[in-house]
What does this fold into?
Amino acid sequence: MHPLSIKILDGSATEQERVRFNQWLLQEGKEKEFKALQRIWEEAGEKPKADPETDLAWLKFQKTHFSRPTRSTKTRFRWVAIAASMLLLLGLGVLSTAHSTYRLKKGQAERIALNDGSTVSIIGPGTLRVPLYFNWFQREISFQGKAYFTVTKNLSKPFLIESGDVATQVVGTAFLLNTEKKLLEVSEGKVIFSAKKDKVTLIKGEKGWLNGTQLIKSKIKNPNYNAWQSGIFVFENTPVNDVLQSLQGHYLFNLQENAELVNCSFTGSFDQAPLETVLEELSLVNGFAYTFKNNTLSIIHTSCSKK
It folds into this structure.
């Protein structure tokens, strides 16, 4: 809800404030949000004038309604009803329609912190849409792409991810979600992975994926499935492009791919090594040069492409 909403409703807003408010009203979902408040306002009858300062307005409200008897018990009851209705609408998410959208291009990597303490580490391309505030009953977001989720535990507020053909529900856990492959791998906790006609429950070390209309689950065989958390990597004749994408999940750097790497592979391991050490070893083994600037890795020359 915009801080000027009450002043707009009671007619005390200045012309400049009205202009600011109308600009806000043009944003997606804001008109619906304001109309919900307007309906409560109109049904409440008598209202006090808005105070320019929120803190002063609240003090005035307390003094008027709680500190001493007032002339009209009916008016006070109306405002208690308004406050209760607004709290209910906020809790249900009716007034909290504002969302933030994060779009990452191919090669980009970024960790997004949510307001409940959860984090989403996106490996682009990917799109994440999250509400500014979760409602009282659940934490629902939408996501397309590849990302590593670390979800803060809250038994009374499940975490839901809508991703087109598949959906994910957790309480508190860590996992990889790849919506392009319709794949989910669990690193910690338990996850309910569902499609339109099927669902599976996955625990640590298990993965699920959509095959047609059926969800399949199995044990994860990839030794690096949890490396994004642990920083421990083991590679055996692994294409370098795949190595770099695995490293992105842990180190979260941007990557400018190079087609010359298609014939390059790597065998070796890293145990929580600094990224600089990892890149130096990769470049020595495969004979490529690179630059790393503004958190972006660029491969500028390779000798293994001639193999």
The longest helix spans residues 73-92. Residues 65-71, 90-96 have pLDDT under 50 and may be disordered.
